[in-house]
Specification:
The protein is globular, with a radius of gyration of 17 Å. A hairpin with a 2-residue loop joins β3 and β4. The protein has a four-stranded mixed β-sheet, covered by helices on one side. α1 packs across α6, α3 packs antiparallel against α6 and α4 runs parallel beside α6. 53% of the residues lie in helices and 8% in strands. The protein is of the alpha+beta class. The chain starts with a strand and ends with a helix. The protein has eight helices and four strands; from the N terminus they run βαβαββαααααα.
């Protein structure tokens, strides 16, 4: 397997999962700022010119969540995904989608805002209200739970914890000690240290 990777991007999720699996893979570091993801060769693998991209034999995938789900299914003996057809599997799909489609866009709004020049950083109250509402749902889900789904760590935790890690870095989890505990616990896993910051 070959993972096309740039540090401090969504590619870290895929690398984290590969490290959880402990399977051999080749890491190909690319630098979008130097045009590495704009070459005809790379665009043939990922027409969006983004990272990550995984080449696994005859399978080529982009989008970090798709890669994580593929890898979890590819190595079922590691139990990083609930059994197909189970109620837990349905919840697993749901929480991966929530992480990417609901939580991440709001967190990225704050990330982009934090990178603006100082005079342009007036906070949008609607964004804060939306963030609080989203975090409250995830917080409620983790009440009495160590993991998002079932009794085991899964790829859903990789995706959610990596997004909440960014939120925590931006100090957006204040008032949500359960989410801080969730992020801290999962980002201290040995696989995360091998993969780099989530």
């Amino acid at each position: 397997m070959k993972l096309y990777f740039t540090p401090r991007t969504r590619a870290t999720r895929a690398r984290w999962l590969l490290e959880e699996l402990g399977v051999p893979y080749e890491l190909v570091k690319v630098e979008p700022s130097k045009g590495d993801t704009s070459t005809p060769e790379y665009l043939a693998l990922n027409p969006f010119g983004q990272v990550p991209t995984l080449v696994d034999g005859d399978v080529t995938l982009f989008e970090s969540s798709a890669i994580c789900m593929h890898l979890a299914d590819r190595f079922p003996e590691h139990h990083l995904a609930p059994p197909v057809g189970s109620a837990e599997r349905a919840a697993y799909y749901q929480w991966i989608a929530v992480a990417e489609d609901t939580v991440e866009p709001v967190v990225l709004d704050f990330f982009r805002h934090a990178r603006l020049p100082e005079g342009q950083q007036a906070e949008a109250p609607l964004s804060r209200q939306r963030l609080n509402a989203v975090l409250a749902v995830v917080d409620s889900r983790l009440d009495g739970r160590e993991f998002l789904v079932g009794a085991h760590f899964t790829a859903a935790d990789v995706v959610m914890a990596s997004i909440l890690h960014l939120a925590h870095t931006l100090k957006l989890l204040e008032g949500h000690p359960r989410l801080v505990d969730y992020v801290t616990r999962h980002t201290q896993r040995p696989a995360v240290r091998r993969a780099g910051t989530p």
